[in-house]
From TrEMBL:
Highest taxon of the lineage: Eukaryota
UniProt keyword annotations, A-Z: Nucleus, Transcription
Spans through the membrane: none
Subcellular location: Nucleus
Organism per entry: Timema cristinae
UniProt record, GO biological process: transcription by RNA polymerase III
A GO term from the CC aspect: transcription factor TFIIIC complex
Keyword Nucleus: yes
Protein name: Uncharacterized protein
Keyword Zinc among record annotations: no
InterPro entries on file: GTF3C_component (IPR052416), WD40/YVTN_repeat-like_dom_sf (IPR015943), WD40_repeat_dom_sf (IPR036322)
Amino acid sequence: VYSKMKFLVKQRSGSVYGDKPYMPTIKWTLNYRKKYYTTTGLFPELHSRVADWHALGPVEVEEYLPITRESPSLAQVCIRKRFTDPKTIPGVKFKKLKLFEGQLVDGVPTLFAGGPVWGMAWCSIPMECLLVHSIYKVNVHQFLAVSCHRSMDDLHKTGSSYSNKGLIQIWDFGHLDNLRKCSMAPKLVLGLAHEFGAIWQLEWCPSGCYDVETPEDRLRRLGLLAAACSDGTVRIFSVCFPDQLLETHADK
């Protein structure tokens, strides 16, 4: 084990605590991206158009939404040295979030997805987009894909397959910065309704699938999202930027 980890001894970054980044990892990530990530667009045939998307009505969508519409009581407490019962700390306020509600307290985002979360994945942002932000101060939003059970009491047996309805959630966290706190509460901006059962795992294609510019005859692609489903399949979703769908389906 030491032979694999001894490179850490050479790294010096000062003290690390709380939410402060371990600075050497930024360099490692940059070098890894340069070596393995592509700047060329991949899978150009896996793009979507407006006609490929169907907006569900308020009645139809209920079959796909989580059943629980309110979260347990939540409180945000900063504990540095030792565990303390939040109920004994003066000024702590408990709050329940509505389904798909997000909040921002002291720069820390919280959201309620509606059920036990099984899969989460951040959409990978190309380096050139991050450089545009650094040079021109153009904010680049980051998106998180989330999957959860519809019910808090869902049970699944090993070796069995399931094909019930569900929803893959796409959340917008705004622009994230390693050196600053979050400035925007997370917002649900897109839901992918499906009939593939529980989604056990989500993963974005790490490079080559994020459109920096909008193609002429297609929707601008956010990325390709792989979902491991309880019906025994792995499906690939071509996810577009949510704002383009909001513009085309604003009246539905």
